[in-house]
Structure formats: structure tokens, C-alpha cells
Amino acid sequence: MEKVKCTISYDGTDFSGFQSQPKIRTVQGELEKALMKVHKGEHIRIQASGRTDAGVHAKSQTFHFESPYEIPEHNWKKALNTLLPCDIYVHETRKVPSSFHARFDAIEKEYRYYVWNEEGTDVFKRNYFYLFKCPLNMEAIKEACKYFEGKHDFTAFSSAKATVKGSKERILYEVTCNQNGNEIEFIIRGDGFLYNMVRIMVGFLLDVGQGKRNASEVHDLFAKKDRRLVGKTVPPQGLYLWDVKYSLK
Amino acid sequence: MEKVKCTISYDGTDFSGFQSQPKIRTVQGELEKALMKVHKGEHIRIQASGRTDAGVHAKSQTFHFESPYEIPEHNWKKALNTLLPCDIYVHETRKVPSSFHARFDAIEKEYRYYVWNEEGTDVFKRNYFYLFKCPLNMEAIKEACKYFEGKHDFTAFSSAKATVKGSKERILYEVTCNQNGNEIEFIIRGDGFLYNMVRIMVGFLLDVGQGKRNASEVHDLFAKKDRRLVGKTVPPQGLYLWDVKYSLK
Q1: Is B111 in the same domain as B64?
Q2: Quick one: A145 and A208 in the same domain?
Q3: Pseudouridine synthase I TruA alpha/beta domain: which residues (chains A, B) (predicted)?
Q4: For the domain that residue B19 is a member of, what is the CATH number?
Q5: Contacts of B207 (CB under 8 A, 6+ apart)
Q6: CA–CA separation, A204 vs A227, rounded Å?
Q7: What 3-state DSSP class applies to A117?
Q8: Is residue A147 part of a domain?
Q9: What is the ipTM of this complex?
Q10: Contacts of A11 in chain B (CB under 8 A)
Q11: Boundary of a domain, candidates B52, B68, B96
Q12: Which of B10, B91, B120 shows the shortest C-beta gap to A120?
């Protein structure tokens, strides 16, 4: 058996999320359908670095699969791109040691969240940004971003529905926010993320930008570990899984 | 009766074109459905500056309608945006004299066509650009653009299916092409356009950019008036109706 690591991007708009579900169009479903065609009807299961929700995009998502076929690694890219629908694209296929695991070996993930901050409505942005009309205090947001960096318990900033066992401590290496015209970009890099963590954090940061919350509350919220004390989860269409890093060279 | 002029944008991705068709989702159909709700079931017919094909976008399209209601002009914008789906947005509503006609009074139209020129595939561009992988000679394209400016018979550059009666002479005020990274933008302004004219012209210009055709052929093609001598029509998703100008102040 050969193990192949794939790096893909997808436009999440027309998917009901990443994970396979019967009779529903998902990213995993489409990937496994393409692999099944290559393998003449045999079901090949993929393992991704993690799931994404309905409407969430990926600029760079990673998964692996095992195949009985010996195919030059670059040909996997060609074969899959020929078979996949146009909202998924395979950027790279590489043979990896059998010990590699796309989920367990990931050492860092980067998410980005895009807000379009304008009073009107740009119909071309609606699936790719959170359209947000209220004026925002960028300095306040930038200050609040710093409070999230480092090792913290993110219970208050993760969905109460989360089923993760064990510690809810995560390390964020970077939480930054930049404005370029009407576009506001949040960059969040960390060693791991809890369910809905980025979307809840960005919701809080937008509250700070409107003067509804204060940057200095963050540490208190970490300590209280209560999701109900933080505001709403921002919508999925602004969120991008941007990169997944491995120690594998 | 009051006449109202509306300026809208729409994302053409999920529409089967502008013009109403039974049981099919069109821009006109959605606009008239919204107007019918405002008018308590009465069918209000709109007149647009022109149609756009399936998949073609509008950054600024214009239409007018007549209403028995006396509503402050800005309230029309609010009412329609509340009732319209999220892929249509009304930017402006203005009361106009009863003599105004969105189609017959248009004195200039601007179209833009966007090409994404990259070897890979960017899944986020596929509905908004023509994804074109071959390298292009921008200088050759820019030179060819100049040949299109001015008054010419565009028969060779319009669909053989066109049903326009009368002259196929049109005046193009501007035909330019700019590159910004992977993005190539064509700007085409004129007093009027024949069916598929922009998409056939851009198809020819991309042939010039690949060295398949020569800029100097344009005058000969104008003279021969034969659509079959020009290459293919580029896909709709790169095309935007960008602006419609009226003499109305």
C-alpha cells in the first residue's frame, strides 16, 4: 500500500461541510467518489487534518489516503483534478511514509476570517466575506487580538456543543487583524482549534470594534470558561482554513 | 403613475439570465416578483437597459418601472432590498420623468471582462473570471484593442444567432486591457453592443495574446462581416455589465 498526502482548496459555498453524510454533497463525499472511480469501485477512505462546517472555505486543506496502486505521485494530482467537481482543486499530491497521519501529525493550523465592512451590499462578496455594515474601531480590535495570543483555556470561545475530550487549552501563535479598504482580514495561527473557536473569537473582536466589549475582558473570560458570556458566532462564509503545517519535510 | 429608475447589481451565477422565463430563476423574474409583493399581487413590468445571458454579472444595470403608488424615492430602495434575494442589490432608486426609458435613453454602456491567467486553478475565481492557463502576450493584446475603437460594422464579432434589425455599426469609445498580477481586465465602452459582441471580441483578443491571430486582421474582419472567420465566444462568468449612462442629469 502507498500513502498519499494531498493538499486541496475548495469553495465551501455549495457543500454541506467537509464530512461525509449520506445523500448530501460534502467535500469528503466528492473526494471519496473520485478515489472510488480511480480504484474501480473500491471505497478508499480519506483522513483529513480536520473538518470544516457548511459554507466554510479552504485555501489549503490536507488529507491522506492509502492506495494499492503504484502511481507516480504527480499523476495522482492529474487524475483527481480530472475527476473532481470544479469547486475542489488538488494543488499537490505527495507520497508519504506509512506512519504519516493528516490529522495527528499536524503541528500548526492557520485560519483566516474575512469581513467586508461597507454600508452598502456587494453581491459578489456575500459567499466569501461576512458583510458587516457597522463602523469598526480598528485600533481597539488590534489591541484585543493581542490578548488571545499565547496558551489559554478557550472553553468560553468554543461551541457549547463541542465534544472534545481532555484539555481545552490551546496555543495561539498569531492573532492579527488588518484593514485594506473595505476588507478586514483576521489571521489566526495555533497548535489546534476547538469547535467554532475562530468564529466565536471574531464575533467577540467585532463586538470590541463596535465598543460593546472591552479588550481587557478577555482574560476574565478565559478564567470563567463560560460560552454564554461571549457573543455570537459569526457566519461561516468569511472563514477559510488557510494552511496546515506538518513537521514532515 | 410615477416612473422609477433603479440601479442594481447582481451576481449572475445562479440566474438563467436576465429575461423572464416561466419556471426558471431569472433576474427580471425576481425583480417583478418583489414588485408584485409591494403592489399586492399586481404585476408590474420592468424595462431594463438590456438583457444579460446566464452567468453574466452586473455591477450596474438599470431598469425602470411605473407604479400607481406615491412613495418617497429612497423608500423604493429599502422596500426592494428587503424583498429581493441576496444575489441582487438595489443601489439607487430615483423618480424620473414619464418620458424616460431605460433601454431607449441609454447613451453609453460599459462592459468589463475578467480573465484569471494562472497555470493552476483558483476555485474562488471560477464563477467570476474566465480561468485561462496559457501565457499571454499583453503587448500584442493592447495593440489589437486599439483596432476596435471607433465606428465599425461588428457583424463578424456578433453571434450569428443575433436577430437585430438594421445597422450593425456601433461606436466603441474605449477598448483597453490591463494586467494586475494574474488578473487581466478588459474595459469596453460603446454606444451599443450586438449579441455576444464583447465575448467574441475578448475571444479574438485572447487568440492574439497567444499568437494565433494578428492585430492587423481586425479591419479585414470588419469588412468581411463573417462570424465564422472569428474564433470562439469566451464564457459568460468573466463578463460584467459595468455601467449604463443616460443623458438624464
Answers
A1: no
A2: yes
A3: 9-105, 144-247
A4: 3.30.70.580
A5: B213, B231
A6: 11
A7: strand
A8: yes
A9: 0.88
A10: 123-124, 126
A11: B96
A12: B91
Which are the contacts of B231, defined by CB distance < 8 A and separation ≥ 6?
Answer: B200, B203, B204, B207, B212, B213
Determine, for residues B89 and A123 on separate chains, whether the beta-carbon distance falls below 8 Å: yes
Q: Which CATH number do you get for residue A144?
A: 3.30.70.660
Pair (B125, B189) in one structural domain: yes
Whether A73 contacts A80, CB under 8 Å: no
CA distance B229 to A93: 42
In this structure, is residue A30 part of a structural domain? yes
| Range of the structural domain that residue B121 is part of | 107-246
Contact with chain A for residue B128, Cβ under 8 A: yes
Q: Which of A96, A120, A147 is the last residue of a domain?
A: A96
Interchain contact B126–A (C-beta under 8 A): yes
In a domain, A102, yes or no: no
Residues A133 and A55 in one domain: no
| A128 vs B contacts (CB less than 8 Å) | 124
Question: What is the domain count for chain B?
Answer: 2
**Is B81 within the bounds of a domain?**
yes
Whether B120 and A81 lie within 8 Å, measured CB to CB: no
Query: Which residue among the candidates A53, A87, A153, A191 is catalytic per the annotation?
Result: A53
Cβ <8 Å between B128 and A124 = yes
B123 CB within 8 Å of a chain A CB: yes
Question: For this structure, is A122 an active site residue?
Answer: no
Same domain, B169 and B61: no
Count the residues in chain B: 249
Is A128 marked as a binding-site residue? no
Beta carbons of A91 and B122 less than 8 Å apart: no
Which uninterrupted H or E stretch holds B208?
Answer: helix B197-209
Task: Considering only the beta carbons, identify the residue of A57, A89, A123 that sits closest to B87.
Answer: A123
For residue A60, give the nearest of B122, B17, B72 by alpha carbon.
Answer: B122
Is the Cβ of B104 closer than 8 Å to some Cβ of chain A?
A: no
